[in-house]
Amino acid sequence: DTEVTQTPKHLVMGMTNKKSLKCEQHMGHRAMYWYKQKAKKPPELMFVYSYEKLSINESVPSRFSPECPNSSLLNLHLHALQPEDSALYLCASSRPDRDTIYFGEGSWLTVV
Amino acid sequence: GNSVTQMEGPVTLSEEAFLTINCTYTATGYPSLFWYVQYPGEGLQLLLKATKADDKGSNKGFEATYRKETTSFHLEKGSVQVSDSAVYFCALTQSYNTDKLIFGTGTRLQVFP
Question: For residue B99, what pLDDT is reported?
Fold first, then answer.
């Protein structure tokens, strides 16, 4: 079982809104990731959590705020986004040995 | 630095044709190599992987062999189907930083009946 579940699948938000993307996995994976993917481009790493602690922040603007409440959940809080932040946001997870990174279906975000 | 180079797409084939998508990499140490597939409107799915030289990854009729001497990991399938139409990403993780996937630009495959 390699299931990473993301909600919502689609989100439209205004530039003054506050919203959150959610990600869940029950595979016992201890590393979780947020990636951003623009159209016709490969995914770009945003954040990595390892054992519920933020281990990598790829210089992401502060309007994106990650949170890892426990080992199964990962949130991405969104505030004051810009239209250029519209993209597919992918959550992923991997086992402690980091052998393979598994992705969810993604959340399509549109900022208007 | 570390990087992955894929052939430009789109690759357009008729059903049952032979597929090759080229992938070469630049990396220090001993990277692990992956192929991910992204169907229209969906997230990424792991297609296959190889973790050391001469390993062959395979899944759903797709194969790729880790060639250290040519720094390549070309994806092949003997007979493609319309349902294989998707974007294929070659990627690597560095042996000293397995948290960061380094992707190629992706290759779009279009298969027509």
Answer: 79
